[in-house]
Write a structure and sequence with these properties.
By secondary structure, the chain is an all-alpha fold. It has one domain. Helices cover 73% and strands 0% of the residues. It has 4 helices and no strands. The protein is elongated and about 60 Å long. The two termini are 12 Å apart.
């Protein structure tokens, strides 16, 4: 039997994290928050995806396997990007939008909610690990 868990797990992590993010944003907004779908928010989709595959490799192959080390390194890069670079881009978007508002009304607004806070990243990592554990368990049945 073919093992599709390596293909299914990151997709499920993305789906679960995105669904949770939509629900959380909808509760906060008091209505369906379709406008908030995308980058930023709790939990981090990016962190969830990369941590799910790292966790799955650790569960299936062991944490001593070289692929686990590669997956953790990739996850580390993605998490750093989500927490630092993309947050800085969001701050720049705020400043650019302020400048554009004061000068030119026809310039479209840039998306300001791009990066993630530490809590959003931890929630994404937790979501990814949980999805990997459940997927691993279900695929063994």
């Amino acid at each position: 039997m073919m093992d599709f868990s390596y293909a299914i797990t990151p997709f499920l992590a993305w789906l679960v994290a995105g669904g949770l993010k939509f629900l959380i944003n909808s509760v906060k907004a008091g209505k369906p928050a379709f406008g908030l779908i995308g980058y930023g928010g709790l939990p981090s989709n990016h962190s969830s995806i990369v941590s799910s595959i790292a966790a799955l490799i650790g569960l299936k192959e062991s944490i001593e396997h070289p692929a686990f080390g590669v997956a953790v390194a990739l996850a580390f890069i993605v998490v750093l990007d989500a927490s630092s670079l993309r947050r800085q881009i969001g701050r720049q978007a705020v400043a650019i939008n302020r400048l554009a508002d004061s000068k030119e009304k026809s310039i479209p607004q840039l998306r300001e909610r791009i990066g993630h806070t530490f809590i959003e990243i931890i929630a994404g990592i937790g979501t990814g690990i949980l999805v990997a554990a459940v997927t691993h368990w279900v695929m063994q049945i």
